[in-house]
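Example 4.3 (complexes with small molecules)
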Amino acid sequence: MIPQIEKLLNEQVKYEAKASAQYLSMASWADTRGYNGVADFFYKQSEEERVHMTKLVKFINERSGNASIPAVEKPRDDFKSLMELFETFLESEEFVTAKINNVIYECLQFKDYNVHNFMQWYVAEQLEEEAVARTLLDKLKIIGDDKSGHYLFDRDINTFQVTE
Ligand code: OFO
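Answer. The structure with hydroxy diiron-OXO moiety bound is encoded below.
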């Protein structure tokens, strides 16, 4: 495996681990405030990010690279509102998308078409996740401070669950 690409993939392992920890923290925040639907949503998101991470670890090792398992810093848990929770979700997904786009760019520079091909799965996944994050944030903007709106949002959120 091209060393520069291996380094970028290992950095991506860290970003996926970071997203997984962030979403677990968000699930826990929601769980302790009565938002059980939101909690379920983020528990599942957290698991999905862990799957994304493991997929990268296996790929690096299968291609005779060395996957390095990163330390993950403490995620945020100081959210003031559901709105802030979902703003953080969208920011996190946008950050990961930018990093994936950078890996793709570097694959083309190094003519590493195998990794380029592998990363297409992540591109498709990010498109879907960002779309869900934007839709949910738009709904919260419509709801504003309306408590019964928050109740219904929490009840219905898992109809928007991202698959995979
Ligand atoms: Fe949504 O971050 Fe993984 O790829």
